[in-house]
Design a protein that fits this description.
alpha/beta; 6 helices; FAD/NAD(P)-binding domain
Length: 208
Amino acid sequence: MHLVAIGGSDAGISTALRARELDPSVDVTVVVADAYPNFSICGIPYYFSREVQPWQSLAHRTHADLEATGMNLRLDTLATSIDVDSRRLTVRDADGTESTIPYDELMVGTGAAPSTAGISGLDQLGPDDGVHLLHSMGDTFALEKYLDEHQPETAIIVGAGYVGLEMAEALTVRGLQVTQLQRGPEVLSGYVNSSRTHQGSPVRTHLH
């Protein structure tokens, strides 16, 4: 039996590990869009505050640890389509080459999608404009590079969920004057009002 998991964060990796634990004969392939499987995205703010160093410490397990369990990691590989009838997953490698992966069982654990919070034009801006979406290790390195090269004095953080608040603290520790924007009347709204379902959105940071 061949299990394919799309997503290299907690959901995908946990599925792969559990499948191998229950049945070591199961072939498991984990398709990861970037080169950083099993990294703690929630821990990124603590990397910026220097409480977690080096960046490799954000990994729950190393690449070698994961492959030692018997799973096959397809890094820098983007899943582009699923053929449910033939049970085949189409993927695109970093060089643009497309191929298909047959599967018996498929688990999709891609996590949250980046959000622009409904702000018009924000999706047209990026790191070169001083606007950063903190959603992956690649985003982390881009923001760190910007901080090193431009030495900004102020930052605006859109969103006051737990990651937004942690980033506000981290950037303050780094010496920046931080302004935090929240559309609602309270921070951590999902935790304050337990009757409302809340899913955290990636934080947008604007540096200048």
